[in-house]
Amino acid sequence: MPSTVPSTLDGWWADPSTEYAFVGFSYEISACKPQAQLTTDFKNIRNKFNGRYVRIYGACVEKGKPMVTKAGYYDTVVAAAWEAGIGVHALIWFGFNGGSLWENQRDTLYTSLSTNPKAKFVTRIVQFGSEPLYDSVLPAATLASQVTAYKKKIAPMGINVTVSELVYGFQTQSASGRKAVLEAMDNVHLHMLPFFSSKASTGTAALPLVKGDIEYFMKQPGAVGKKLYMDENGWPSVTSDGVSANSKAAVASVSNEQQYFNLLDSNCAYFKETNGGIAWFFHIYSDDQEPGYGLYSTSGKAKFTFAPKTSC
Fold this sequence. Notes:
Elements: E1 21-28, H1 35-47, E2 53-57, E3 61-62, E4 65-69, H2 73-84, E5 87-92, H3 101-115, E6 123-130, H4 140-154, E7 160-165, H5 167-171, H6 175-184, E8 188-192, H7 207-219, E9 228-233, H8 254-266, H9 268-273, E10 278-282
Parallel strand pairs: 1-2, 1-10, 2-5, 5-6, 6-7, 7-8, 8-9, 9-10
Antiparallel strand pairs: 3-4
Helix pairs in contact: 1-2, 4-6
């Protein structure tokens, strides 16, 4: 990063076509880790793995107030990302229990984006929810209108807005509702979790499932030609609450988790040449953020060797 904050975003972000293959990790923030820990982890993502981005997951809320975002915490994320030299895909988190948390998230994030001079030079994309359609937190038309309104609000900052969602989340909607949300999104953030497919077997054999979900969006009205990121993307190493296979052949194991990411890495050319370049994240940084999905175990050691291609 430069020693002083630039005066313009002109030429700041790389062309989206250069963003393909591995681009970073999802990183869960509900533990409200201090800036020093965020900086250490973000630097590791940037320097050890050549990650371009951290995709924020979850929310840091006030203790005892689950519907209130901890004031200024996104500024802490921005400060850590600036020091680490990494970009951020921010998140307006809806939670799992309904309620008004998302409205508080929406408004406090805007405060940070509009008042922190470094924020727009760190924040590339705002995700308007993580599986909000699958969780039925808002009607599709309402979600689309919220995305559109937020896009207009932050347009001067050069930040894209999207919805982070499963294919199935869109499939549950009417054609008009699905199209409205997809048209509102600047790009597509796709949850790629092939372990849960009824056709799943091993991590090594998951490519047809991956391609099937990608091709779904490449053909959908409102999504055709839009940049695609596989953000909540992974294979669990263990089962836990809410993590159970829909195929008897699918096994949650460290071996299958490693096989899945090796599969993505070995198909770098496909991700480079398809749809103008498709980028993927590793979901998630550590098992202490979401059990079974992390590269790092709860002891802080990598579960397997991971040295992904960032170009080919």
